[in-house]
Amino acid sequence: MITANVFDIKRFSINDGDGIRTTIFIKTCPLRCKWCQNPEGLIPEIRLWYAKNLCVACKSCIAACEFGALDWDALGVRIDHDACTRCGACVTACPTGAIRFDARQMSVEETLLEIEKDRPFYGTDGGVTLSGGECMASPAFSLAVLRECRARGINAQIETSLYARPEVADAFCEATDRIITDIKLIDPARHRAATGVDNAPILENIRRLAKKGAALLIRVPLIPGFTDDGENIDGIAKFVASLGRRDIPVELLNFNPMCREKYESLRQEYPFDPDQREIPEDTVRALKEILTGYGLTAL
Amino acid sequence: MEALKTEKEYGNPREYFGELSARTARIRARLLDTQPTVDTERALLTTESYRAHEQDQVVLRRAYMLDNVLRNMSIYIDPDALLVGNQASSDRSAPIFPEYAMDWVINELDAFDKRDGDRFTITETNKQILRDIYPYWKGRTLQDKGYAAFPERARLFYDLGIIKTEGNITSGDAHIAVDYGRVLREGLAGYRARVIEQQNSLELADFEDLKKSYFYRAILIVLDAVEAFALRYAALAEEQAKSAAPERAAELLEIARICRKVPMRPADTFHEALQSVWLMHVVLQIESNGHSLSYGRMDQYVYPYYKKSRAAGMSEQQAGELLENLWLRTFTVNKIRSWSHTRFSAGSPLYQNVTVGGQTVDGKDAVNELSYQILRSVARCHLPQPNLTVRYHKGLSDEFMQECIQVIRCGFGMPAFNSDEIIIPSFLNIGVKKEDAYNYSAIGCVEVAVPGKWGYRCTGMSFLNFPKTLMIALNDGVDIDSGKRVFEGTGHFLGMERFDDVMHAWDVFVREFCRQAVILDSSADMVLEQEVPDILCSALTDDCIVRGKHLKEGGAVYDFISDLQVGIANLGDSLAAIKKCVYEDRSVTREELWNALLSDFAGERGEEIRKLLLAAPKYGNDDDYVDSLVVEGYDSYIDELKKYKNTRYGRGPIGGRYYAGTSSISANVPQGAGTCATPDGRHKGDPLAEGCSPTHAADVNGPTSVFKSVSKLPTDKITGGVLLNQKVSPSMLENPRDRQKLLLLLRTFFNALKGFHVQYNVVSRETLLDAQVHPENHKDLIVRVAGYSAFFNVLSRQTQDDIIARTEQVL
Description:
The structure holds two protein chains of two kinds.
Chain A: E1 3-13, E2 21-26, E3 48-50, H1 60-64, E4 70-73, E5 76-79, H2 89-93, E6 99-101, E7 104-107, H3 108-117, H4 119-122, E8 127-132, H5 139-151, E9 155-160, H6 166-175, E10 178-182, H7 188-195, H8 200-211, E11 216-221, H9 230-242, E12 250-253, H10 260-266, H11 281-293
Parallel strand pairs in A: 2-8, 8-9, 9-10, 10-11, 11-12
Antiparallel strand pairs in A: 1-2, 1-7, 3-6, 4-5
Helix pairs in contact in A: 3-5, 5-6, 6-8
Chain B: H1 2-6, H2 22-32, E1 38-39, H3 41-52, H4 58-72, E2 94-95, H5 103-108, H6 124-137, H7 142-149, H8 152-159, E3 163-164, H9 166-170, E4 176-177, H10 180-200, H11 207-243, H12 246-261, H13 270-287, E5 293-294, H14 298-301, H15 303-311, H16 316-332, H17 339-342, E6 353-357, H18 369-381, E7 387-392, H19 398-409, E8 416-419, H20 420-429, H21 434-437, E9 441-443, E10 447-449, E11 463-465, H22 466-474, H23 499-531, H24 535-539, H25 544-547, E12 558-562, E13 564-566, H26 568-584, H27 590-598, H28 603-615, H29 624-641, E14 654-659, H30 668-673, H31 703-710, E15 725-728, H32 736-752, E16 757-762, H33 765-773, E17 782-784, E18 789-791, H34 797-805, E19 808-809
Parallel strand pairs in B: 1-2, 4-5, 6-7, 7-8, 11-13, 12-14, 15-16, 15-19
Antiparallel strand pairs in B: 3-11, 8-16, 9-10, 17-18
């Protein structure tokens, strides 16, 4: 049975593609972007997740653990993931759902059942979006879901870094109605520093898919101090213009400070000033003008 | 999608609809600055007339009352208005209707201006007037007779607040739309002719005919009184014209000309039509203080006059200004209720509904230019009245829907959508003729009926508190707060070995409580029929004149009514939490749960139990575990209700029966205040869930899941209305792309899931919080309370908090 570790299913998601969609978030990602919005989706394994806001400090989880993987400190429950055997005793013991697994292993069939729930709302534009993590890192599962969706008449799209081997990217291209992909940084050195990987395979995939006529939407996350400078946007604009595909829009995604709590739960350092807010509209407008200056459609 | 591309974007959605005309802006400003007061004119004139006509048949007594009021009450013309007709001696003042109830009026006289919400001022002179007439009404009011008529056991349910029916014995009925279209076509002269024709064929030796003869005489008296009322305005306008500036003098003379013509004769112009409709509408609200008197499908029956006047040169602006005049007059009507009743209907709502859109009898889209004009003029007025409903159907254009969404963006809770796709088939199914089913309109808020053919209260009979019913069922028939036994139980929860025992207890109790509600309803209907029949309202409803029967005697073509069920989500969530925590997971014992409920989750273990209960599946998330329990629990009630008949059964109307309804108005707040902690994790005293909406903040999967959960209810059997409120922040509707998604969402809810109703409160949480601190900065902030809109700053603190707590759907 083909399965994947799904860490979230978001119904009525309207920012991940056209129409009303259900977005499936699949674990594991080859990139390590410093600003990752879904840090729980980076590693492939299912782990325990602790939500402090739900915790009533009853410590039943600690009492239930036979492996000494849990203890208590000023930040609440501390999890030793190496000692944890994923037996689930603490999850059962927790009365409020504060301790839970961060993902669920789902089969293709189970995933499709969830997708079908909002079928009436999809219409012709809406449908399903696979996201992550990186859906291309679980190709067997992702391709099976995408193909089955399209066989059932459900519009299927993906959000991907396109950091994948060309033949994998091509297979996904065949199986989807649209590919939403990021260009985070155009400069290879800066890209490597911020994400841990080279951007050459990404740009190469975009170039090749564009030539094949694939339906693409390119997104640039505007991350303060990382990607939001005019030089980067200008470089990206130049690259997209060079594709010769005026129908490929570029969307600037403003910084979203909402993921801070996730870093707290993971006990990882939040890479930004806690007071960092969205980038001002005027700045975003100026960056969009760079794009339109190259004759591109800026969203 | 073409319309979207060319659309200009408006930061402030109210700019989209432009400004009121200079004159209507002045009227509106004056109305907003008016502090509602209590008016005693009608009380005095009614008392005078009742004293003089004690010996007369009740229908004649009622007619003489209206006659005396219309001939002698103060009338005035707003210096800027183009339409005339006032309910009381000044705008926004609330008349007292002594024949319905006086005890609460006298008891609360000194507290009217100290209320936490819905404040009314009253002068010392007026207080004295009311105290002076009070002795006459002792034992004569509807309420006195109602209390005397309640059987003992049923009275216990009333007193303990399990079943709330106060509004039905302290007010008139209304919840009706009469056929204004026929008034416009025939004029009241046509009605008079029909009555005389019936009179001429009576055989007074026949007892039935003898009874009818009083009713016919009564109709002729009120028709004459309405004519006299209109002529008084004509004379006043002519008088004022003598000293007015030339431009205003011309307007006043036109008003005088129109009032000499309508409503007695048929209307010809748009202005005449609106004046005729308004005068009838205000007189009906002088005849009775029943609320939810509705305009029906105004974009249909006024359209011929609109078209004719437009062809004759009336500009769009002129038409818009006349409509604005109508809505501003509509807003002048006011009602004061007892404090206990006010808490069930916060914001002094009159629920004067106007319906647009829908289909013609042959299934074509009925939207016309006037539909747009009504939408836009109501948006410009931005007031809690009238209550605007759009009849949705598959063929409603995107263009019209987008216009509706622009009105939603204005943030005053309108329009609400009712769907033809479920309502018309439901009506056909219960025996409504096709041409009538396709002509239905909204009445009040979410409820529906056929204008001019349907009796009173297609919804709005008594309220049954579902969670309280469950708690009494679990407590073996004893009311927890009072300790009084109300029914022979099926055993206590502590002894219920299986979850099936819980469901069985619920089934037995909800059936009995449903039966008790019907007993209270019938008692109320009986005294309403005997004491306060409405003559004019009956004359305007088919087939009262033909049958010689007023509405309460069975004069209407159709007569279905509905009770209201409150706390549906709390019931389902409670059942699911009991099933999961006590019987499946066994994480809480029966004793622990029971003690936690009685102690309102006191102590550490109490709080732990509450968290466990809260973690159980909740209605509104498309989760069959709980949704199926909501349906099963509700089905017991619906199945029981269909056994019962109302007091008009077999006396003429099609129907004479009940169906279920969920338009709980703001009853969820006071009924929650009187209910102990419940197994869904709700604290003692917290509001219940409203309508068929999920419990506050329990819907965490977004709007599609809410729609899916709601659509699992047996909507085709809840013809009294399935009320769903959703709250959205203004930011959600700023760009055309998101508005298009809202439209998609609505279409799916109605087309595929067969939803009945939905309405949106578009206002940010921050705005509401700020309005609590700085009410002076938010004088015109309107929120959707349940099936209607109200000014936020007149609501009680508790209702305000309840609105703020509702889940804000993130689109």
